[in-house]
């Protein structure tokens, strides 16, 4: 009897803990689904606001008339012209946020972002070279140059950040990206300034905005965005393994180099496609994944869909704000995202929950 007492005392808490684990996981999953539905509702509400608000406000009845049939009259024609820029804001925001989340997972760097790592600027420089020396003028040509430029800079920054002891640490990657972005920005200026015939258009494009969104441009980059999204989502489980460290991930059967390369390819595709059509837009890929981790945790299978919705919401909101604050003039979304993203990022970093990935 005495021997059985301690055994019972030991096994009882284990059994209680095991039986309590599944309900806890189910509650966490239900909470995530609830947040996901709320994000979907927020995105839909922002889409309607984006169609209604601008330099010329229109009525709600006109908005719903355009959504359900062909436009009639000047007001409804204005709404129809806002549809492609709204679609571009949704796609660009989702792509940049997912790209940032994947880059943070690949590098295990909480400061990773297409802008901070210089990938945006690499794509920008390549597009500017194409415009200045090869006469590019359409998104069909921009996308290929942007893809090459973004890929080369991504490899370059990772190689520089990997030099020395400790390999590619977050600090070295951030410093390498910042230095590379500064150097590439100078090269862009050196190419553009002597060429007055392209200076105005290039400088407007470099501000980063969705006002030039058209259906042909969206159709041009849509295949690249779709492929990039699919690649990133398929590597979500592998990114979870990379978060444990390369040695442990390899011990679990993960092909670390292949997973890192494939995930990086998906992130570069997304970043290059957005930069080609909308110009460089910062802070979306940095802030949104951090904010979404507060809702979902670090599981990339949840984080990437949340980041896509959060990025779409942020960039659509930035576009709406940019249109209504100084009518009839507009403020480009990259300026609004910086104003929104900088204080939000500072607030997120102050929280202990995001001190490490």
The pLDDT mean sits at: 84
Low-pLDDT runs: 1-20, 352-356
Distance between the termini: 50 Å
Question: How helical, in percent, are the residues?
Answer: over 70%
Per the CATH scheme, the topology name is: ABC transporter involved in vitamin B12 uptake, BtuC
Largest β-sheet summary:
none
CATH architecture: Orthogonal Bundle
From the alpha carbons, calculate the radius of gyration and give it in angstroms: 23 Å
Structural category: mainly alpha
Indicate the CATH class. Answer: Mainly Alpha
Transmembrane segments: 30-51, 86-103, 115-135, 142-161, 173-193, 221-243, 263-290, 302-325, 331-349
Pfam family, one: FecCD
Organism: Nakamurella aerolata
GO molecular function: transmembrane transporter activity
What key phrases describe this protein's structure?
ABC transporter involved in vitamin B12 uptake, BtuC, 0% strand, 14 helices, transmembrane transporter activity, mainly alpha, single chain
